[in-house]
Amino acid sequence: MSSPVVPIVPAAPASAPAQAGNGSAAPTAAQLLAFVRRAAADAELIASLPLDPDGRTWVRLEGPGGSEAWLIGWPPGTGTGWHDHAESRGAFATASGSLTEHSLAVRLPSSGWRSLELEEGVDRERRLGAGDSRAFGQHHVHEVLNESATAHAVSVHAYYPPLPLMRRFSRTGSVLRLEQVERPEDWQ
């Protein structure tokens, strides 16, 4: 028996910033964005990432203020699938190639659901070429894709607090389904 489909409406504004574990202020979205922009502009760092023609590659970086950061290589035609970053806010910058981000302007319930019906008008799309970047708040639901048929893309991502979990979703039309919850040990 399938679970009921719950309607979801547009998101409310994000809450105030948390404190970093060392007692200092946690990095802001602007600081995360500045970090990913600097790292994406570092030609030596970008060139150090091994690129695999068949799958994404990644290297963990030291982010600002205790944040989690990653350098990621995207072969042609690869993507993340729909997911969120739970309570973490983040930023990413494209260093080379081009990425497409599909996102939802909604705030999902933190628990107690398996499928949701999305309202019309919540879909967003951004194309981020080399040098482009963006920041996002908590509970941001998106998928990131390298839609190129021939060129790799490379990007830098940072999250604070470090990712406690990621929820993975499938989507059919206006219905979003929770498929899996991943913990840090699943991707490190």
> Strand pairing plus helix content: what structural class?
mainly beta
Mean pLDDT across residues: 87
Identify the CATH architecture: Sandwich
Write the CATH fold name.
Answer: Jelly Rolls
- Counted by DSSP, the helix tally is 2
Strand order in the largest sheet = 1-7-13-12-4
Under CATH, the homologous superfamily reads Jelly Rolls
Q: What distance separates the N and C termini?
A: 35 Å
Uncertain residue ranges: 1-19
Largest sheet: 5 strands, mixed
What sort of overall outline do the alpha carbons produce when their principal axes are compared? globular
What's the helix-strand series?
EHHEEEEEEEEEEEE
**Count the strands?**
13
Q: Rounded to an integer, what's the Rg over CA atoms?
A: 17 Å
Q: Which CATH class?
A: Mainly Beta
Strand content: 35-45%
Number of domains: 1
Into which percent range does the helicity of residues fall? under 10%
Describe the overall structure.
The protein has 188 residues and is mainly β. The chain has a single domain (25-186), classed as Jelly Rolls, CATH 2.60.120.10. It has two helices and 13 strands. The strands form three sheets. It has a five-stranded mixed beta sheet with strand order 1-7-13-12-4, with no helix packed on it. The termini are far apart.
